Each structure stands twice: as structure tokens, then as C-alpha cells.
Amino acid sequence: MRKPFIIICSLYIFFTSFVRPENLTNVSIRILTTKVITTFAFSPTSGDYLVYGDGNLLKDYDPTGIFQMNIEKDSILLKTFERTIGKFASLKFYSKEKAGEFKIKSVTPQSRVRTYDGDMEVGLTPDKAQFLIINKVSLENYIAGVVQSEAGKNISLEYYKLQAILCRTFLLSHLNRHEPEGFQLCDDVHCQAYLNKATEENIVKGVLETRGLVIVDNDLNLITSAFHSNCGGVTCNSQDVWSISTSYLKSVKDTFCIHSYNAVWQRTIPLEDWKAYLQLKHKYPVDDSSKFAGATSFSQSNGRTIYFMDRNLKIPLKIIRADFKLRSTYFSIEQIGDSIRFNGRGYGHGVGLCQEGAMRQAVLGYTYKHILNFYYKDVHLVDLSALSYFRQE
Ligand SMILES: [Zn+2]
Ligand SMILES: [Zn+2]
Fold it and tell me: Which helix (H) or strand (E) holds 144?
């Protein structure tokens, strides 16, 4: 029992140096980040909401109604269907009840309706050109929304537990990411996708059953909980993709994903495009046919490599992947007539947990702890709720 105690005490010291435990109960997430919104609507779907304009509680409105906001001369114009309420620099919609839920819909540009738990704060970006919409939500409700957005529906409970732990670990290690902009994380893949509240029962269950659990390495640091869709049969070392070596993001052989949806792919491009690319971007002597032959044949059949390489050329595979928008760096190249064909495996950067392999393992009956230790080396699960306990000592 001695080791867990030491881990918890050390974590307490580690976390309190930059995050107070009480801050771990709620998070502030910018929503609809990728859209340049100039008009949108808000409507409570559960619970009453108090509306504050520039810090003052507004009166004489129907708290269950629909509010519309649009930008007018550097201010936010707040309206209901019946009337204009006023112009403000900022608005807050706070739920009176703990379980408040609201719908939001961008009107300009048009987008689908999204549903969120918790509170909403509205301001404008510094250039006053678009809305800055922030969802203040309980940490675990946010995690459930992220798990549904990142993993999708109809997957096993055991997998959802695992995904919840990964997303919670990512959240806690990136709490200050957007601090200068007035929120903690955005809802885009830049941080973690958070496109709606969770609607699937198994996701909510998976989050609750792993409540507070995060992953740390041997030095008690939160790990970089990287994951990707499909590794193609072998994951990558972090230093091979991001030039940063870690003790836990090590290449592992994974046979669980090789028959999954994203296991194989192909992409064909004109030979001329390949020649032009090598010549213009990499100064390759494509007019020398004896030398160019080496650039039309490439294989990783003996294992994943980092570079596309022949006698004359060494290009990081991640550069080729980015330039041709390929699904992964795990590909071979062959010439077929006037074309070049990429025969690829997997989808994503290949570092850390392979989602489709992990999903398969969950279906086969492996526990989330087993799967976690399959993809991440020498890591530990720690319950952050212990922090509050030690804080009260
Ligand atoms: Zn972000
Ligand atoms: Zn895999």
C-alpha cells in the first residue's frame, strides 16, 4: 500500500503547483470554435436560466424562450421573438439548477442544433468580428461529450471507459492551453472534439465508472495520451513522429486492428505529379532516369520507417503524408504505368493508442486496464479525487 500513498502525495504537490483541485470540477470550453458566427440562437431545454448583461441580471424576459444574438457595431444585440432586450459587451446564461441543459444554433452561418449541459458565456473576439461562445460545464459531462465526439456511438462500455481516461488525462494536462483567450480548451480537434453533450447511455456510464481516473508515467507526470484511428499493425515511437522521446509512447506490434475499417488504403496519383513534387520541393534529379527509378519503388514491408529514402533522397514520411494528405505514413510506393500508387496501412499519426485495435480488444473481453498497458508502457492509473481529500488534511 505504500506506493499508491507516495504517488498520491507526490501528485498532490505536483498538481497544486498549477491547478487547484476545486478547479477540476468545472471547465470552460469554447464551442463552435471553427465557425465565424455573427448570429446565433440560444434556448434552455432543461431548467431555468438567469441572463446577465454586462454583469447585471436582466428582467422581463421569458426564461424558457428563445434568445437571438447578433453583432451590431462592436456590441451584442440580444433579442427575443417579441422584442429587443438591449446591447451588451458580454452575456451570461446561468442555469439555476445543477442539471441545466440548453440548445444552441448558429444562424449565420447556418449549422445544426447542438445541445450542451451547464452554463454559457458570450463575448466577442478582440477584433469584434465574431462571437466567442464559452460553455462552462462539469468536468465529467465535458468528458462524456468528448468521448462521444472522438469515438462515436455503439461501441463497447469497456472501450468507452478507456477513451474517457485518455480524454480526461488530455484535459488535465492542457488546462492552460487557451488561457490568454479567456477559456481553457476549444471544441475543435486542436484540443479535443466536443460537438455535443453525450447522448449515449454507455458513454455516460463509462465516464462515471472511471470518474477522476487519469494516467501518469513513472515520474508521476500526466502522460501525453495520444491516440489515433488505426496503426496499420504497428504503432510508432513518439520520437519518430514528434521528435520527442517519452518512456511510454513506444512502438508496439498490434494485430488487433489489421482487419478493421481503416486497416488498409490506396491512393493513386499521376507519375508526372510525383516527379514534379520531387523536383520542385526536394530538388530531386527526376530527368536522370537511372536515378529516378529509385523514387518509384519504396516499401516498409520489413517494418515502419521514418524516411522515404533511396540512394539520392531522404524525405521524412510525415512530410509526404502532409503534402499528399495521405491517411498515414505507413505506405509503400509502386509505379503502375503512368501512375504512382501508395499502398497504405492505418489511419492517423500512429503514436499511442490505436482506437480500432483497442475497440477490438474490448470486444474480445480485455479490460480497459489491460488495453491501456498494451499501448502505453510503464504507466499508472491515479484517481484525482484523492487530491481534495489531502487538501482538507
Ligand atoms: Zn484548442
Ligand atoms: Zn493498431
Answer: helix 139-151
Q: Which ligand is nearest to the CA of 374?
A: 2
Nearest alpha carbon to residue 274 among 323, 343, 212: 323
Does the bond joining 21 to the residue before it have cis omega, within 30 degrees of 0?
no
Cell numbers of 357, please? 485495435
C-alpha cell, 19: 491547478
Confirm if 142 and 25 have CB atoms less than 8 A apart: no
In the 8-state DSSP scheme, what is residue 64? T
Strands (E) across 10-118 are located at 26-31, 39-46, 49-53, 56-57, 67-72, 75-79, 84-88, 91-95, 101-108, 114-117
Helix and strand numbers, DSSP H then E, in the chain = 11, 22
Residues linked to residue 146 through DSSP beta bridges, in sequence order: none
Model pLDDT for residues 96-137, shown as the tens digit of each residue: 888 899 999 999 999 999 999 999 999 999 999 999 999 999
Grid coordinates representing 180 are 490568454
Ligand nearest to the CA of 257: 2
Closest alpha carbon to 147 in 158, 157, 160, 135: 160
| Ligand 2 center to 252 CA (angstroms) | 9
Pair 363, 235: CB distance under 8 Å: no
39 CA to centre of ligand 1 in angstroms: 22
Q: What is the pTM of this model?
A: 0.86
CA quadruple 178, 182, 185, 190: dihedral sign: negative
* Domains of the chain listed by start with CATH number: 22-186 (2.60.200), 212-258+350-392 (no CATH), 264-345 (no CATH)
Strands 75-79 and 84-88: antiparallel
Grid cell locating 375: 499501448
What distance in angstroms lies between residue 169's CA and the mean position of ligand 2's atoms? 21
pLDDT digits (tens, 9 = 90+) for 24-43: 789 999 999 998 999 999 99
Residue 102 Cα to ligand 2 midpoint, Å, equals 38
Contact in structure between 319 and 329 (CB atoms under 8 Å): no
What 3-state DSSP class applies to 322?
helix
Query: Any idea what DSSP says for residue 223?
Result: P
Q: Give the three-class secondary structure for 391.
A: helix
What is the Å distance from ligand 1's center to 241 Cα? 20
Element (H, E) at 15: helix 2-16
Ligand nearest to the CA of 185: 1
